[in-house]
Design a protein that fits this description.
The protein is α+β, with helices and mostly antiparallel strands. The chain folds into two domains: 75 residues, OB fold (Dihydrolipoamide Acetyltransferase, E2P), CATH 2.40.50.140; 175 residues, Recombination protein O, C-terminal domain (de novo design (two linked rop proteins), Up-down Bundle), CATH 1.20.1440.120. Helix 2 runs parallel beside helix 4 and helix 4 packs parallel to helix 8.
Length: 260
């Protein structure tokens, strides 16, 4: 972003917002041009605010920002993509909230990262449009880890370095990868991982999304992959995420509706 210009334009996704003062909002944004930033939307909580509708979470928007004393001030807002299906389906809302929470927890105001921005907007689009958003979320998790420098080693044992054989293995969050059965049994923190789950995780890691989407992953394997990645992500963050519990509640309610 130009340092000397009083105003500048960014493309961004709204991660979250909070009330500030009597009528304003502070927004946490992930921008294409500058990574994660905070900005203030003056008067956004007023009923007649023209900006408010453009500044909801998960919205992709172009903003005009003016430099303020503490943080930028939003002077104009124009929606690029509202991702309406995310607001019309509770499960898709939950997945979008999870994607945004992960990015928010892992990132700081540290400057431009276009790879992360592109992964975010592509994932929101996929959650909006694909029949099964779960695959889009698993793909997001595994590639987010890549971009953040936490790529798990799924090919060699993270302890002894031997190439992994086609059999059930273990996974250690502490060591950041798969452990062969011999090494895995010596680590109390290691989690078992089936051959099928490992095979599909490798596929997601090395593939484009179009290639990954052709895979037919059984529901039980999907659940195992989700559990394993949650274990690794929680270890890296050193705290639990809020949205997985919400997602479990929504999915359970959906199953009860189908059987009832």
């Amino acid at each position: 972003m130009p340092d000397r210009e009083r105003s500048y334009r960014v493309e961004t996704v709204v991660l979250r917002h909070s009330d500030w003062g009597e009528a304003d909002r502070i927004l946490v944004l992930y921008t294409r041009e500058g990574g994660k930033i905070r900005a203030v939307a003056k008067g956004a909580r007023k009923l007649r605010s023209r900006k408010a509708g453009h500044l909801e979470p998960f919205t992709r928007v172009t903003l005009m920002l003016a430099r303020g004393r503490e943080m930028p001030i939003i002077t104009q807002a124009e929606t690029v993509e509202a991702y309406l299906p995310l607001r019309e389906d509770l499960l898709r809302t939950g997945y979008a909230a999870y994607v945004v929470e992960l990015l928010d927890r892992f990132t700081y105001e540290e400057g431009e990262n276009r790879g992360l921005y592109r992964l975010l907007v592509d994932t929101l689009e996929r959650i909006s449009t694909t029949p099964d958003p779960q695959l889009a979320v698993r793909y997001y998790e595994i590639h987010l880890l890549d971009l953040l420098g936490f790529r798990p080693d799924l090919v060699h044992c993270a302890q002894c370095g031997q190439e992994i054989r086609p059999e059930d293995q273990y996974f250690s969050a502490q060591l950041g990868g798969v452990l062969c059965p011999r090494c895995g049994r010596t680590h109390t923190d290691a989690k078992p991982v089936s051959l099928n789950a490992l095979r599909f995780l490798r596929h997601l890691q090395r593939s484009t999304f179009a290639e990954a989407a052709r895979a037919k992953i059984p529901a039980a394997v999907q659940a195992e992959m989700e559990s394993l990645l949650q274990y690794y992500l929680t270890y890296l963050l050193e705290r639990s995420l809020n949205t997985p519990a919400f997602l479990r509640t929504v999915r359970q309610a959906g199953r009860e509706d189908q059987t009832g």
